[in-house]
Amino acid sequence: MQINVGILGLGTVGGGTLQLLQRNAKLIQRRTGCEIGVTAIVVKNLEKARPLAFDAALLSNDPDAILNDPSIHIVAELIGGVAPARDYVLRAIAAGKSVVTANKELIAKHGAEIMAAADQAGVDFRFEGSVGGGIPLIKPLRESLAGNHVRQLMGIVNGTTNFILTKMTREGRDFEEVLAQAQALGYAEADPSADVDGYDTMYKLAILAGIAFGAPVSIQDIYREGIRHVHARDIEYARELGYVIKLVALARQDPDGEIELRVHPALLPTEHPLANVNDVFNAVFIQGDAVGDVMFYGRGAGSDPTGSAVVGDIIEVARNLCRGKSGQLASEAAHPLRIKDFADVETRFCVRMQVADRPGMMAQIATVFGEKGVSIESIVQKKSDGETAEIFWMSHRTTQRAMARSLNEFNRLDAVRDVASVIRVEGE
Amino acid sequence: MQINVGILGLGTVGGGTLQLLQRNAKLIQRRTGCEIGVTAIVVKNLEKARPLAFDAALLSNDPDAILNDPSIHIVAELIGGVAPARDYVLRAIAAGKSVVTANKELIAKHGAEIMAAADQAGVDFRFEGSVGGGIPLIKPLRESLAGNHVRQLMGIVNGTTNFILTKMTREGRDFEEVLAQAQALGYAEADPSADVDGYDTMYKLAILAGIAFGAPVSIQDIYREGIRHVHARDIEYARELGYVIKLVALARQDPDGEIELRVHPALLPTEHPLANVNDVFNAVFIQGDAVGDVMFYGRGAGSDPTGSAVVGDIIEVARNLCRGKSGQLASEAAHPLRIKDFADVETRFCVRMQVADRPGMMAQIATVFGEKGVSIESIVQKKSDGETAEIFWMSHRTTQRAMARSLNEFNRLDAVRDVASVIRVEGE
Fold first, then answer.
1. Half-sphere exposure of A207 (CA within 13 A, CB side)
2. Residues from chain A contacting residue B291 (CB–CB below 8 Å)
3. pLDDT tens profile A201-214
4. N or C: which end of chain B has fewer CB within 10 A?
5. Which of A97, A104, A167, A204 is catalytic?
6. What is the pTM of this model?
7. Both B82 and B179 in a single domain?
8. Does one domain contain both A207 and A65?
């Protein structure tokens, strides 16, 4: 049996998918037990030069060339974004086609709707490439670890910000400077917001947490903070204390079932496995009640790695089709997630501030922390010019509420000239 | 639909599996869409005290209580070893039952036979727990990475030897001393051979390589060397040069298709991801032609982690059964593996030797290396007492044949008092 694949979108991931299906066709046929052929490719711009070898007759700029072609079994949606991808995916499913995608935004925003449609139509819908590039994550989490209550999931899932933070750490340079270089190298977009403000990480966390807890996660429930406010000096202080700073995606379930979902920079102890995940590499650390700690590590983006994930999904769907069945996992029985009020979430904090260097100042600030319920573990004071000193406070675990109240109070405090940064501590 | 599971063997893994199925029954039912119940447990000794809570009426010492009970859908074979496990597994399959196991020796020695029987009977046979405890490995390798040609696979897959080497490294102590302590702590068996001589690692490599290359691997084709000959001094020298010593399982496919399979201690650069896998943790590093480098890390043994893998398999088989189908992946089309002659395998080497400390000695040894085709990268000489010096040679890549011939020649050389150790270098 020949399985026909239609590819929507021939950018980085679409091109990688096409090339891999061609290059490893023999291997894939052996492993699938059936032939997989790309029989249609839809792009926006037919005129664009593409460094790919394929039969030009397959190319069209009309999505109906795939969506309305009854001979196509699997649609690989590799356009990205919500519109028109959502529409295409739903139409493909309605037409009885299985769908494979790497579209994190689409799944984070409309995954539940699409999965329900796929369930109803009895077709496969898979999205391994949407998180962590080629690193197997969704499938191991959903299937291999299915016997576990996931207690915590913490990941570095955005290559751009990890590249920037790694470079800032190695070279002691500041954010804006490194961002400009990353843009020049093509590692960051001209508009870098999706990466550096944490949106991309947030979408991926929504997907992973949805799988881990077996129910849709709304991105509205995720606290999100990017890396624009991380300074070289924060990284330097952190290093002195034995930490590195990473942008983490974190989902945690309390013993009483309440869930925390957050994306923010965090100090991680240098000996934590995620602390050594550098450059564009990604890794996800999962703690299950039975399995303990497991970590998945690899290249989180790029044409070949993400192509590997998309092709892995295509192979699995093809195996199912060749054997005349859908492998779609029925959605779990509905059970609403209880999201913890963010103000109640407890973390440790690092606070770097510029203060008036005068007697009693330290006691004044410490008193505020104490009154608001923030207990301090350590203090590093540096760089006083006789007038202004810089202090780095490290707190014990405290609620977001208590820290927000302290910071609020500092606004009114003469001695505190500026709160330069507030960064959480994780992985301890 | 209720899925009935029979558990053969109630040791560490059997106990962990039973407990996890009980503890997370609600979660598992939600995720599976059907109820999974353990309806029979077979043990050798009915009288043995067990710290487990279960209905004593389920217990029997007669394997037929499971194998001949038509109401049992899934058999979890958790006895270990080849006999009688092989017989039980084949009988279960012949009776139309799906089988889940964590038995590495059985799969390494009889996997092909059992998989063929399962294919023919149309039942599932799964063995995620056989390698790496709870770390998802088999399934991601077989399914998520199916679009890749695996170029290399290198892993630390034996917790006992990793615990011993980690302790030797941290405390500068010698093998025998640390082994005795590991035995006292219960991390090593009274007869430690299966672990320290590399048999356990060899079985696991056979399983992983069989999946990676899509064809059965015979353990006869695996070069195997344990850690008994690794000395504190080797570890110390290695550290000075920026390496740690680990027992690695390694499978590599050349561009021309020839395969190397070996288990031996190896020097790994300290910055290699596997170099930081310590104590009883396991990790497997896989290089695919599309995905690049990916690594899987976690607890490689123990009742809960391995139970997690076994339960993951049971859940998957149950999902298939509830939907009235087998999820068994048909075996790949046969394609014989070409195993490289071990003498032709190229590696770098470290050779530590005691030599007569006299003029011309260094030149004499270097000449032998040169004549046999071993090119030297660096030399560290230490600890001369005026009579005997200790030298640590680090070679460039060379064949096993060339090194064997050099070592042979040293036997005849007066200047070489003793070749204390020969350890390969990997991960560069």
1. 31
2. 133-135, 298-299, 304-305, 308-309
3. 999 999 999 999 99
4. C
5. A204
6. 0.94
7. no
8. no
